[in-house]
Design a protein that fits this description.
The structure is a single chain. This protein has 494 residues and is α/β, with parallel strands linked by helices. Helices cover 40% and strands 20% of the residues. The protein is built from 19 helices and 21 strands. The chain has helices at 51-68, 108-116, 118-125, 134-143, 148-151, 158-167, 174-177, 192-197, 220-226, 240-246, 281-286, 308-319, 326-335, 356-366, 375-401, 418-428, 439-452, 458-468, 479-490, and strands at 4-11, 15-23, 28-37, 41-43, 46-48, 72-78, 84-87, 154-157, 172-173, 183-184, 189-190, 208-209, 214-217, 232-234, 259-264, 267-274, 289-292, 298-305, 407-411, 431-434, 472-474. The strands form 6 sheets. Strands 17-18-16-15-19-20-21 form a 7-stranded mixed beta sheet, sandwiched between helices. Strands 3-2-1-6-14-13 form a 6-stranded mixed beta sheet. Helix 10 packs across helix 17 (439-452) and helix 15 (375-401) crosses helix 19. The longest helix has 27 residues, at 375-401.
Length: 494
């Protein structure tokens, strides 16, 4: 078949890219066309996303695509979850969307649990309890008596916002909607009763749209500005992890999965693909989550604070005048003593921007461990701690599914971190297959290719990914030392 190109706009919490995925009928290749950094901006005590700058960068990338790519079929956007924008009358954007790390949601989770009970909220949504969830951000508007609730007419999650800017069509894509903690994943509809009982409006919620939905052509002005005439917009799995999971180079999972995935980046999202959610006391007790996947699947998973620890350490060192490449940092970590100290990466002390090296040192000091001092010691502590948390999550997944998971697929940018991949194999005692790195963009592209008819199914899409990209194998080593350290680690999880 003639080559066809699909454009993937992939926005993460620290950067964005526009990529072109070209499929020739057998293999797919991905080319990065435009890359940019972005971050949440503090203003008057709040953290906001600069969505107009993101939109400007996105258009720059699409403009480059129009000049460099041939036979472009469609485009789609994926982003992180939970954050949202509010539109008022006449579709005016009421404010810059807040970042999930904004302090406004502090205490809101406890209020919701006090009002409805943890078990009731989980029974309706199947979602893990995290202060960053959309539900608690939404509640903060009521708690602060925000006037926005009185004038807002539409709630658009981040990818919904950009798809509306591209096409003028409003809707809420399924995989991202499931991250809000006000979506009922068993009924596959909004949990409006839950919102009403918390005195939150439900009329803002739009129609839930499935991945693969064809939204229509670009707005005329966008088409003119980018040169992308006759290009359609197709919804991928707009939650970046949903797209990444689609591109895992494994057989499609069935009732009893034999593999799990880690979508590795700022966050590590570790889970399995299932045909239906797991909503029971064990899942609630472990605080695991059921999020939507492509093809009406469910992603049973756990969020783990991932490369955020290293990103914040490097930022703190840079601000103090220590400028080192990732390669230099990695070499120092490899020479540091193994398993000398461990932290719980999901502890509250590590969730906000700040002096991450000092936070890691304080945790070790307060838990009576060796306090890492050098760059290498701190980085090794962070990497091994994240790997240990992966082992804890693996044990939970196997308990909830009743099945031993033989292989761990690591996809995304973290697949390039050889130290973390090997540490994960060592900690978990499982084979790790790392790659592809561009899993999120690939999953985005594959959904568009399925929607166009170029690929017939999810299983065929995964076969295409397997043919197109190599993976790197990591066998477990020195498992006895990791087993001993794990016993100590489990006592520090809280």
């Amino acid at each position: 078949m003639a080559e066809k190109t699909y454009l993937a706009v992939d926005l993460g919490a620290s950067g964005g890219r526009v990529l072109g995925g070209t499929f020739d009928g057998e293999r797919v290749r991905v080319e990065e066309l435009h890359r940019f950094e972005h971050h949440a901006i503090e203003a008057a005590g709040s953290l906001y996303w600069n969505v107009l700058e993101l939109w400007s960068q996105m258009r720059d990338g699409l403009r480059k695509a129009g000049k460099q790519c041939r036979d472009i079929q469609s485009a789609g956007v994926d982003t992180w979850g939970v954050d949202f924008a509010l539109l008022g009358r006449g579709d005016v954007l009421l404010e810059n969307p807040h970042s999930y790390r904004d302090p406004r949601s502090a205490g809101m989770m406890d209020r919701a649990i006090a009002a409805l009970g943890r078990k009731e909220i989980f029974a309706q949504t199947g979602l893990q309890f995290m202060p960053i969830n959309s539900l608690y951000q939404f509640m903060s508007l009521r708690a602060s008596q925000s006037p926005l609730l009185e004038v807002a007419e539409s709630l658009l999650l981040m990818p919904d916002l950009f798809h509306w800017l591209l096409t003028g069509v409003k809707g809420n894509e399924y995989t991202n909607a499931t991250t809000t903690q006000f979506f009922n994943n068993q009924r596959r509809t909004w949990a409006t009763d839950l919102l009403s009982r918390l005195d939150l409006p439900t009329h803002l919620l739009g129609k839930v749209l499935e991945p693969g939905t064809r939204l229509g052509r670009l707005r005329p002005q966008v088409a003119k500005d980018t040169g992308l005439t006759n290009v359609e917009v197709v919804l991928p799995g707009t939650h970046d992890t949903a797209s990444a999971v689609l591109a895992v180079p494994a057989d499609s999972a069935g009732e009893t999965p034999e593999w799990c995935y880690i979508s590795s980046g700022t966050w590590l999202l570790m889970g399995v693909e299932l045909p239906r959610p797991v909503i029971n006391d064990d899942c609630l007790g472990l605080n695991f989550t059921n999020e939507g996947g492509v093809g009406q699947t469910v992603r049973l998973l756990k969020n783990i604070t991932g490369l955020w620890l290293l990103q914040e350490c490097r930022r703190a060192w840079r601000e103090s005048g220590i400028e080192q490449t990732w390669e230099e940092i990695s070499r120092q970590a490899e020479s540091a003593t193994a398993l000398a100290s461990l932290v719980d990466p999901d502890h509250a002390a590590f969730q906000s921007p700040g002096d991450m090296p000092a936070a890691i040192q304080d945790f070790c000091r307060h838990t009576g461990q060796h306090v890492p001092e050098s760059v290498g010691q701190i980085v090794r502590c962070a990497i091994e701690s994240v790997a240990m948390k992966c082992r804890w999550v693996l044990a939970g997944l196997e308990k909830l599914t009743g099945n031993r998971l033989e292989t761990i697929h690591i996809v995304g940018g973290g697949a390039l971190n050889r130290s973390l991949c090997q540490a994960t194999a060592d900690a978990c005692g499982r084979l790790v297959l790392a790659g592809p790195v561009e899993a999120t963009a690939l999953g985005n592209v594959m959904v568009q290719a399925i929607a166009s008819g170029a690929i017939g199914s999810i299983s065929q899409a995964r076969e295409v990914v397997r043919r197109s990209f190599p993976v790197e194998r990591y066998e477990p080593r020195q498992t006895s030392a990791w087993n001993d350290a794990y016993e100590q680690f489990t006592r520090r999880i809280g």
